[in-house]
Design goal:
It contains 15 helices and 12 strands. It is of the alpha/beta class. The protein has a single domain, classed as Divalent-metal-dependent TIM barrel enzymes (TIM Barrel, Alpha-Beta Barrel). Helix 2 crosses helix 14, helix 5 packs parallel to helix 6 and helix 8 runs parallel beside helix 9. The site of manganese (II) ion has 5 residues, from loops.
Length: about 400
C-alpha cells in the first residue's frame, strides 16, 4: 500500500536536522554599521544558550557551527569548557569554521597569499581548527576563504591556485578518520575583481585535489543572479561531492536573509533534487544542512526559529513529490504532467503534519508562540543590555 502524505512527511521530518551558526546570535550588521540588540549574544556561552532555545522549541537543531576566532579566542585550551557548555544547553558542537580572513596579515590573502609566511600561518590556523574538531567530536571542518584581488593584474591567479591546492592538501592530510573538509565558494565580496575559489567548479576541483575527505559546500547566497542552484546540487550529488549547505535567502547578492523569505520555491527545488537522488539511487545523501544567516534587524532567536520551521516545511513539501510518477513523465517528456508533480507537492499544506510531528515529540505545536510566551527573550534583553550597549562599536563578537 502506498504511504499516505502524513506518513511521508513524518518520516521525512524524523530524518531532517539543520545546524545553527553561533554567529547568527551575535550582533551583526553591514559595512555601514550595526544595530545593536539588547539581548544579542556576546559570548560562546550566550550563543549556545540561545541556540539551545531554538532546539528546545523546534526539536530539529541539535548542533551549532562555531567560528574559531569568534568562539575560541583562546584557541584549543577553551574547547573542553565549550563542549560542557553545549551539553548544559542541550546542543552539541557542529562544524568548525577556521577564520583566515579577519587578521591584518590576511590583507592580501591566506592560503593564496604570495608571502609564504602568511600561507604557513593560515595553514597552522586550519590545523589548529582540525585539532579543535577532534576535541569537540565534530565531523566537518568548513573552509571559506576571502582570498582574491580587487584590481586586474595585481594577483597571479595561477600561482595562487597552486598555493591553494598545496595548502588544502596539507590540511587534508591531517584530518582524522571520519572527519571531512568542506570547501565553500563565493563569487565576490570581499574581493571584487577575482576570488580564488569563486564557484562550484573551482571548489570541486580544489576538493578533488585536496583528497577523498574533501567535499563542496554550497552557500545559497554565493551565486550570481539567476544561477540554477539546484542543477549545481544535482551535479555535485551525482559526483558524490556535495558535503553540505549554508542556507539563507537573498534578493541581490549575499544578503544572508531568512531562508525562504524571498524564494521558497528555490529551497523546495534544492530539497527536491536531493530527495529525487535518494529515491533513484536508494542511498541517503550524506549532507550537512546548516544555516548561515546574518540577523541584523529581526530578533535573532525568533528569526532562527522561523528559519528552522521554514526548512522543515519546505523539506516536507519536497518529500511529497511522487518520484515514480515524475520519472515516468520525464521519460516520456510529458512536460506539464512532470512539472505538476512539483507544483502539487509545493502547494500542499503540510502544516497539520508538522504540528502532528511536534506533538508526537513533545514539542509545542507553534514553536515561535511558545518561545515568545517563555519569557526568555525578555530575560536576556534585561540581562545583556548593558554589555551590548557598551560594545556598540565593536566587531563581531
Ligand atoms: C562568507 O560570506 C560566509 O558565507 C562564510 O561561510 C563564513 O564562514 C560566514 O559567511 C560567516 O560570516
Ligand atoms: Mn557561508
Amino acid at each position: 500500500m502506498p504511504a499516505t502524505q502524513e506518513e511521508i512527511v513524518i518520516k521525512a521530518l524524523d530524518s531532517f536536522r539543520i545546524e545553527l551558526p553561533s554567529w547568527g546570535f551575535a550582533n551583526t550588521g553591514t559595512r555601514f554599521g550595526k544595530f545593536i540588540q539588547p539581548g544579542a549574544a556576546t559570548t560562546i556561552e550566550e550563543k549556545l544558550a540561545d541556540a539551545g532555545q531554538v532546539h528546545k522549541f523546534t526539536g530539529c537543531c541539535p548542533t551549532v557551527a562555531v567560528h574559531v576566532l569568534w568562539d575560541f579566542p583562546h584557541g584549543v585550551s577553551s574547547v573542553p569548557e565549550t563542549v560542557q557548555l553545549a551539553t548544559k544547553y542541550g546542543v552539541r558542537i557542529g562544524a568548525i569554521n577556521p577564520n583566515v580572513f579577519q587578521d591584518q596579515i590576511y590583507k592580501y590573502g591566506s592560503l593564496g597569499n604570495p608571502d609564504p609566511t602568511v600561507r604557513e600561518k593560515a595553514l597552522a590556523h586550519i590545523l589548529d581548527s582540525i585539532q579543535i574538531a577532534s576535541l569537540t567530536g565534530s565531523r566537518d571542518i568548513s573552509l571559506w576563504f576571502a582570498d582574491g584581488s580587487n584590481f586586474p593584474g595585481t594577483a597571479n591567479i595561477r600561482r595562487r591556485k597552486h598555493w591553494f591546492i598545496e595548502g588544502l592538501r596539507a590540511a587534508h592530510d591531517r584530518l582524522a578518520e571520519g572527519q571531512r573538509m568542506l570547501v565553500e565558494y563565493k563569487p565576490f565580496e570581499p574581493a571584487f575583481y577575482h576570488t580564488d575559489i569563486a564557484d562550484w567548479g573551482m571548489a570541486l576541483l580544489m576538493a578533488r585535489a585536496a583528497g577523498p575527505k574533501a567535499k563542496v559546500l554550497v552557500d545559497t547566497g554565493h551565486h550570481y543572479q539567476g544561477q540554477n542552484i539546484e542543477q549545481i546540487v544535482a551535479w555535485l550529488l551525482d559526483e558524490d561531492m556535495l558535503g553540505g549547505f549554508h542556507f539563507n535567502d537573498r534578493r541581490y547578492a549575499d544578503d544572508d536573509l531568512t531562508l525562504g523569505c524571498i524564494d521558497p520555491y528555490q529551497v523546495f527545488r534544492i530539497f527536491h533534487e536531493i530527495l529525487l537522488y535518494e529515491f533513484e539511487t536508494g542511498r541517503r545523501a550524506d549532507i550537512a544542512y546548516m544555516v548561515d544567516q546574518s540577523h541584523n534587524l529581526k530578533g535573532k532567536i525568533e528569526e532562527m526559529i522561523q528559519t528552522a520551521l521554514t526548512a522543515q516545511e519546505l523539506y516536507a513539501k519536497a518529500a511529497l513529490v511522487d518520484h515514480a510518477k515524475l520519472l515516468e513523465h520525464q521519460q516520456r517528456s510529458e512536460l506539464v504532467d512532470a512539472e505538476e508533480c512539483l507544483k502539487q507537492a509545493f502547494a500542499t499544506d503540510v502544516r497539520p503534519y508538522l504540528r502532528q510531528w511536534r506533538r508526537a515529540h513533545g514539542l509545542p505545536e507553534d514553536p515561535l508562540a511558545a518561545f515568545r510566551a517563555s519569557g526568555y527573550q525578555q530575560r536576556i534583553d534585561r540581562e545583556r543590555a548593558e554589555k551590548n550597549l557598551a560594545a556598540a562599536s565593536g566587531a563581531y563578537a
